[in-house]
Each structure stands twice: as structure tokens, then as C-alpha cells.
Design a protein that fits this description.
The structure is a homodimer. By secondary structure, chain A is α+β, with helices and mostly antiparallel strands. Chain A has eight helices and four strands. The first copy, chain A, has helices at residues 12-22, 41-46, 65-75, 87-112, 121-146, 160-170, 182-191, 195-204, and strands spanning 2-6, 26-30, 54-56, 61-63. A four-stranded mixed beta sheet of chain A has the order 2-1-3-4, covered by helices on one side. In chain A, α1 (12-22) links the parallel β1 (2-6) and β2 (26-30). In chain A, α1 (12-22) packs parallel to α3 (65-75), α4 packs antiparallel against α5 (121-146) and α4 runs parallel beside α6. The radius of gyration of chain A is 17 Å and the shape is globular. The mean pLDDT of chain A is 97. Chains A and B meet through α3, α4 and α5 of A and α3, α4 and α5 of B.
Amino acid sequence: MLKFYYGLGTCSLASHIALEDAGLDYTAERLDLKGNQQNSPDYLAINPKGRVPALVTDRGILTETPAILAFIAQIAPQADLAPLNDPFAFAEVQAFNSYVCSSMHVAHAHRMRGRRWATEESSLEDMRRKVPENVRAGFDLVENKLLRGPWVMGETYTICDPYLFTVADWAKGDSVDIADFPKVAEHHRRIQERAPVQKMLALYKA
Amino acid sequence: MLKFYYGLGTCSLASHIALEDAGLDYTAERLDLKGNQQNSPDYLAINPKGRVPALVTDRGILTETPAILAFIAQIAPQADLAPLNDPFAFAEVQAFNSYVCSSMHVAHAHRMRGRRWATEESSLEDMRRKVPENVRAGFDLVENKLLRGPWVMGETYTICDPYLFTVADWAKGDSVDIADFPKVAEHHRRIQERAPVQKMLALYKA
């Protein structure tokens, strides 16, 4: 049995949707991030990084969204969430998810999590001012180079799609209007028609 | 035939070593990063992100170190660079590489690439002051939680190892003494005994 630790407003949403897409049997526990539960001794024993998501399996604990997404695709091959038997196509999926993780998520994080990288209030304000520009640059690349449509990788829905949905859902808070990116906006609308996404939105936005 | 674009001092070193580890046939072209060749029209047509590494294959172009590393492991299974037939073990490899990419590399990047995230000189100085603390936190996690020894995943060398080597090689420039992390330091010494690493060090440090 899988156990998934998640937090509202976080990138755990991507893996959470993928767990539903995959039809896997799992339980989920929400961490109280405002109460700093992610840094409690109990949770640090599970994930010493003090972050979500974390996926507890019978073999051990996995962290990092791109790794969890690929794992879900691999253990539920019948759900066809990634091109598992085509190394090049799988690498394209991974490259997309790595870009979301290391560039788009990091750009977003400089709005609320600037203290990870600087100390002075003036620096944090400076970072926050630059967030919309960096978030826009990410969506610009997705819109014009990466998103094939209707799904990220083209005709087939993959583990890239809930991850793009997750960061696109942050855009408004980052003062970026997703409507400026028509393909991203259409992706965002379309994916919300899927039952797993509706279920998770009800959970994350309750 | 594969063609690999790389740059001195960059994370392309990790994939470059893995290409050698895998015994793959490839050509390599060094970009003149000081001359901003990564943002030339010719290169942006190859990688619109304006970054290295990029790997040109007969199917298309791949970017992002974690994706390229997994791709190399998958197309050269005889080199045994990742546990390709064990989704959990493969996910552990991917989780390590994702952490290096999105946390350790990002921590390092705030020293020289702070202008990605802020504008004022005072903010860039503030970021630079915090880099050693963040880089140390990354190696602390690797030392105490992630690095099994002698290789990252234990007895078997994987695509995690050249990536750890690459970021560990940056530590001194980030004012972090790798000797403070005995397992990381021993890993750094041991991996340099490997012929592919020696070959790449000669290329990157010539």
C-alpha cells in the first residue's frame, strides 16, 4: 500500500493527480504547512528535506516530483502515463518535468520562499518584483516550444500534464495571466474536465 | 550519431562523463559561454533555453541533465548505469538527480547567476552571502541521508555519481570545503580514478 504526504498549494498536486490517473490504491495524509508540520520530528523522519510530496512505498520513501511521477507511470503501465518503452520519448517527458521542477517551480518559489536564498527584506522584495517576468518566461517557452497540444506531449496524456496544470494554477498568484498563453490556457481548461483533476481540486481547494 | 553541446564549468560535465561511461559514439562541441554563444541564434535554434547541456539525437534534441542522464542509461543498458528494470530503485536514482538539479544546482547558481532572480546589486550580494550555507545544507543531506557509499546508490556506480561529482567540484568556488563531508570527499577522490572522469577533467580543465 502506498501512502502519500501532501500539502495544499504545493507541487504535491501533480503527483496526487497522477496517483488518481494511475488508479493506484493509496492513502493520503495532508500536512499542516502553516503549522510547520513539514519540519516536525515525525515528518522529518519520513522526509528529512522537510518538504512535500513524499510517497511511502513498501520498499522505502520517495521524494521529488519528477521521480515520483515517473515511478507512478512505471508501476501502473496499464494507465499509459508515459512512453515507457521508448527511451527518447520518455526522455522528452522527463526533460519537460525537469524544466518545470528546476526552472518554473524555482521561479515561482522566489515569491513566497525567497528566504531560502537571501536574508534582507529589500532582497526579498527585489526577488518578488522579478517573479512575474520569470514565470512569464517559463510559460512563454512552454507555449511556443514545448506544449504540443492538446496535451503536453501531443495526442497522449502523460505525467507532464498534471505537472503543467499545477504550475499554471500558481500563475495568477504570481501576477501572470494564463490567458496570455492560449495553448497553456486551453490545456488548463481541458485538463479540469478529467475526473481525477476534479477530485483533487475538490481536495486542494476545499 | 549523438552530438553533445557542453560548456566549461557547467553541469554538462555530468552527462559528458555518463556518455563516456556508457561507451556511446558521440561528437561534442564546446560552447564559448564567456562569448555568450549559448544565446547565439544558431544555438538557440538547437536549445531555445540558451543553456547547456543539449544532446542532439536522430529523433530530436534533449535538454535537462536528469533527463539526459536517464536517457544515456536507457540506450546503453549494457553499461548498467541505472537499475532500469526496478521502478523503485530507478526512482531513487531519479530522486537523487532531481535534488541535485533543483536544489543543489539552484543553490550554487545564486552565486554567479543571481541576476536570474533579482536586479539590485545589494540583492545579488545578499544571495552570494547565503550561498555557502545553502550549498553546505545540500552536502549535509547527501552526506548523512543520501550517499550510501562507496557510490551514491551503494555498491553499484550509477548516473547519480557523475552528477554528485559535478556539484562537488563546484563546492570550493562556493566557499565550502568538501573535506567537511567525509563520505562526499571520499566519493570525489574515488570517482577521479575512473578513466572517463579523468578524460573529461582533462577536457574541462585544460
